[in-house]
């Protein structure tokens, strides 16, 4: 178990979780950036930077939407983010039978009782940082446990939001966490004016269940080539390509954090770096929160935001050739991701 800090300053209580525990939220920030973190799902509810009047992530000030149409918005998803094909995975010679919570075919984001649907414990906070913890019991979604997790949010001196994720277990299990915010940088509720650049020369083709079909493929010559900035929705809206919900295979980097992507809209840019080997990019084509409104007072529709999720590769428990998400006793799962949003000068606007 992680050691908790015993004394906490007062924070906001939003509501009660389904189990009766208090759902709390706290603002942290410095250098012109403020982030609001909620204990339910260890979620980023809101992120704002000085000079812009709107939130940069989709969400709500109320708790109830996070039990419904905003279930994964801003949450730490896991214990195994993304999909496990057929709800089955081999572990040390035995076949695990996992919850198939996506169309009865695959496990998605650790199942219905995964990390996004749990009330984490706020361990510590300061003006610029907070740390939350969660212990998942044995059998969560069919996975071995218990699994002890920690999520730390920090707004650094440059105004970037850094997220540190850790996991430990006393038994062999799988661990692959991901931060799942939907980003809309201009407050419009649409990705129409957004451009994306991804630092990846390869991606994972998927079948109709969004399960990887084989080894990584080159992005060159495909709609997945974002090596130079491109409009997020050009091919989708032209009906020339399938929806964007794919893993991009990030290259090796000598730096502690490797470049992942750059998202821009008029007047603002977001740069993402990470230690994770993959970046799942989902263009939000299935979003539909009506009649529940978000930060700007209106419901979110299809393509209202884009999910940029540093993580291990999907279906890794069934793919020994993929980067491993196996966690053994005595080991610590670690991921660090940094999201740096800042205004751009008018003459440099994308």
TrEMBL record:
Pfam families tied to this protein: Aldose_epim
Superkingdom assignment: Bacteria
CDD domains from the UniProt entry: galactose_mutarotase_like
Disordered: annotated span: 309-350
Cited SUPFAM superfamilies: Galactose mutarotase-like
Keyword Isomerase included in the entry's annotation: yes
InterPro entries: Aldose_1/G6P_1-epimerase, Gal_mutarotase_sf_dom, Galactose_mutarotase-like, GH-type_carb-bd
Keyword Phosphoprotein on entry: no
Keywords: Carbohydrate metabolism, Isomerase
Recorded family membership: Belongs to the aldose epimerase family.
Protein name per UniProt: Galactose mutarotase
Organism taxonomic ancestry: Bacteria, Pseudomonadati, Pseudomonadota, Alphaproteobacteria, Rhodobacterales
